[in-house]
Amino acid sequence: MISAETLDKAVAAGLISQTTRDQLEVMERAVALAPEARRADDEGDEENLRLVGGGNDLFVTVGTVLLSAGFFFVLTTLLPGQTFWIAGILAVFTWGLAEIVTRQHRMKLSSSVLALIFMAAILVALALQVEASFGIRKPETIWQLLALRQTASRAGYLFLGGGIIAAAIYFWRFRVPIIAGAIAIAFTLLAFLQTAIILYDSVTTGAIAPPRLEDVPELLRAALYMPLICGLIVFATGVAFDIYDRDRRKIWSDCAFWLHVVSAPMLVHPLFIMATGQNVVFGHIAPDANATIMLTILILGFLYVALAIDRRSLLVPTLAYFGSLGIYYLVNSASDSTGIPPFALILVVVGALIILFGAGWQRIRRIVVKPTLPATVIRRLPPLKA
């Protein structure tokens, strides 16, 4: 069987096109997948994430971290106080290293680490350039903060826009999936910045009355719509990638994984607060009947969506969030009557759910999804394993 690395090298050398490469991979898998191998593949219900390429990848990742850290400390010694140049040189160094690790050898984990180092260096350089260009300093009074409107908007667009462009170029060159998550986060921050500017302009022009102190909790609650909308957009993009690559043979399914990881917190937190009436910043929630019902519906809803799209990456942040916040208040009354610490009950509930869905994920997915969705929708989702 031709390895994926060999096919990637053939595309890079111009011997075959990307379309031909994908067709060869699908054909090779179809020929090689005998009935015994097919049964083994069905029993193995992994999410097929190409995050680690094996023991050698782990070995090279350690070397990548050590080499990058050593090069950074060399730069800080040779260029003391020149943070901008240090960040720029480190970004160039990381790019050159990625030409070997990522382009030539397609190592998964070390490529992700290099991508994160590159983005961190670029963002530091952009932040320093923005600070030098616009003379931004920490405001000491509210009036100084309000006076930063024009400067902050231009600086924000330069910083976030530059980060998005750098990430897009890096992704175009190296096809590292984790960059998709970085781009999604940058676009989300850009949307927050634009929303804040629109609200500021509306207040200063008199279109919106300035909020009073007692209006702040309601204002914060209304602000939850922004991350919710951004989370839905990122989630929809991830689902679109999953539909496009439903067999999860290409890079787009790996990009979808990171998009689901980014979207999950932005969906869970606003929906949890809106449904249960919790204070915006992890305040008190009364575990009454309505909160219990709404919280149960939310958990079941996220479980169903995760099963439908076959993404445990959406479910893990959900269970972590509900386990640390929602379930705590729901089992608090039980702990008061039994004397069992709430933290212990949280561990039992969340741990049981993780083991249950981890051990029987494909079986549960088949039982729940197949009878509840029309066949036309199921044909567009990741295949249900028999």
From TrEMBL:
Instruction: List the coiled-coil residues.
Output: none
Name of protein: DUF2157 domain-containing protein
Q: Which UniProt keywords apply?
A: Membrane, Transmembrane, Transmembrane helix
* Protein species of origin: Rhizobium loti (Mesorhizobium loti)
- Which sequence ranges are marked TM in the entry? 58-78, 84-101, 113-135, 155-172, 179-200, 220-244, 256-277, 289-307, 314-331, 343-361
Q: Does the keyword Transmembrane helix apply?
A: yes
